[in-house]
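#lab-general

N.A. 3:47 PM
ok so I finally got the sequence cleaned up, no stray characters, all 493 residues accounted for. can someone with queue access submit it? mine expired

B.Y. 3:52 PM
send it over

N.A. 3:53 PM
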Amino acid sequence: MRQRLAIIATVAIILGLLILLNAASYVKAENPIDSESLPDRSTYNSGATGTRALYDLLSEAGYKVMRWRETPGSLLSQSHSNISTFVVIGRTQLPFEEEEVKNLLLWVYKGGQLVLIDRRPDVTLLPKAGNWSINVDTLANPDSSVDPGNPQEMTRDITSVHPVQPTLLTRAVESVKPSRFAAAIRFSYTRPKTAQVSEHGGAASAAASPTPIIISEPTDAEGDEADDQGPADEEESSGSEPDDESTVVIQTRASSANQPEAPVTHLQERSGALLVDFPHGAGRITVLSDPFMVANGGIQLEDNLQLALNTIASSNGMVAFDEYHQGRGSAQNAWAAYLAGTPILAIAGQLVLVLLVIVWTQARRFGRPLPLPQVDRRSSLEFVASMAELQQRARALDLAIENIYSRTRRVLTRYAGVDYHSSRSEIAERVAERSTLNRERLEEVMRECEEAINGTPVTERQSIALVRRLREIEAALGLRMRSRDVKQAAEKI
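B.Y. 4:20 PM
back already:
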């Protein structure tokens, strides 16, 4: 039993030391400060670069919204057929895999709506719309010194942007306020190869290589002249380089006969378009080039909120915000994610290691075999130890107290000069007269010992306290122990 107790105590001490070591070495990671150089566009983030305000507003306003924490391939399943809009905001923490891009674009092709809000959206998520190629040009990159929570600093020297035409996405929007880091959305038209008929009636191919055409908008001085030109003349003139006074923009309207899949511009500034959407199969892809307009730090400016509602929640179906690529996918173990960054996992690993060591070392010795300790059978305390063990097992505390008290009473009567059968009050009074002991306390100790001997219930703690007080009385009186006691004490040491 004592050996097991020692093992348990050793294991408990080791575990305590491991816990203290892990707690002392654990340093809590501080929450990173939001910055436009490393933004966190998650709907869980309540900082300046997050989008939690938009998500909470949509949820409280009664819109059907959810946080998407699965791979985009799950959008094609029948269980998620109620999702009509998939929103990807900002540069994601996890890149889109090739298979994920295929599944997402297939979902859009079947009738879904994909909303990309980023200054540098993933080019793989921008497929060609017929003969039109869409790209986003980053005009300015923010640094870490820019405070995204300061709207004045984010929109310095930026004028409000008005819709270029009335559409569903610009409904009830008078003006919006982008940041000075907004990108410019551009797209170009690639003229396909056409066959020409020769004078002799033979078919001859005009092998002009396909060249992209950047659509330009004439300035106000040339506006009337440009309006008189037909569609064919406009196409021929668009192949040349634009004048210095003209502004390169995205064509807002396209001929339904020749270019049925042309993108549509909803918001535009001098550097380029801010909001564009274009068809992809039965669905549409919407691109907004400034996530500041929907982030917590800029959604309250002018009509930015109304634009976000028109862009994201224009349909009646469920709106899913991509959180899987923001590093919050449901594939991660919930307990591991909850305990990440704490010393609990390290402590649990160490506990498992200790338990494995205990199991492996069970009934194994660590050193050379040693002979069993030989008990000295000639010890004079063997009888006393045996009697003490028997009394302890039998819980005969009264007998143990009687053995000690009878000797102490004999010594006190000899010290007081009275008979052994004298009353305890007389013994206490005589002893108090010859010493500094208090008579009431001495008589009380004697009375409690006699009551315990006569059958009064007493606990082990009380019996030990009584014996200790008897030894203190003997030490205070300076009573010398008998030679046998001295010998036994020497042998015990």
